[in-house]
């Protein structure tokens, strides 16, 4: 069987992830472009493959039409908004995820972005490198209010870190974990209350038709002038034009954005703003998280292809 691996970090620090696939007897095809594959590039590589370990590359119905042998998709991560799930289901293609493998790494990065944006660490560092030792007055983190849009594994990880900073925590999630929220003193509320009351707003919800553009101009207008918004989830949840305008006009204090609708963003104005911390969709890119995701994705793919292989032999 032939399998395609698209994530750039897969097995980068962990040869065992590749070893698992090789010992299972799979022929491996790698993404050697150094970047996220386009629909055209993925279509060219996936032909003849029985399985794919997929990053954030677009697995559309057009791509699936070029992969008549594809039987299983192992997502290297948890978000499946880049996968046409309906088309996979129609073709009988199994889709798996590496649930929980990168939650702590993303929570770390989220909190790092909060701290960097609040304390203007990047502009201060840049000034120091030019021998400018002037003082920048910034905003506090300890004891402030954190609002979480989504209280899944990553949201819970951010909440745990916020407790160490004595923060009041508000959260909104359709699937509410009552026991966890009670044990952590987290207040369940509507997004509108979060926008109005939170000093820090952190997005941890999947990108769906319902969440696309859920934070736009109207929602930003509800926020405090000292508010900071962090997105380590998916591009498209926040209206990027509305956020860019708000940051330019200093309507809010700052932002940390690790996920854009198009990466890198085509609007170069993002690169000129001093009040935003930019990320290259790298919140999950730690040695520990990539090793866990790689091994879990490999095992998921082996399991799903073995089930099909055994069914064929029966």
Radius of gyration: 21 Å
What is the tally of beta strands? 12
- Major sheet: arrangement of strands: 8-7-6-9-10-11-12
N- to C-terminal distance? 17 Å
Structural class category: alpha/beta
- How much β-strand is present in the residues? 5-15%
Average predicted local confidence, pLDDT: 94
List SSEs in N-to-C order. Answer: EHEHEHEHEHHEHEHEHEHEHEEH
What's the helical proportion of residues? 25-40%
Assembly type of the shown chains? single chain
Low-confidence stretches: none
Major sheet: 7 strands, parallel
Total helical segments: 12
Overview of this protein structure:
With about 325 residues, the protein is α/β, with parallel strands linked by helices. Helix content is about 40%, strand content about 15%. The chain has helices at about 15-25, 40-45, 60-65, 85-90, 105-120, 120-130, 155-165, 180-185, 190-195, 215-220, 240-250, 285-314; strands spanning about 1-5, 25-30, 50-55, 70-75, 95, 145-150, 170, 185-190, 200-205, 230, 255, 275-280. The chain is globular and about 60 Å long. The model has no long low-confidence stretch (mean pLDDT about 95).
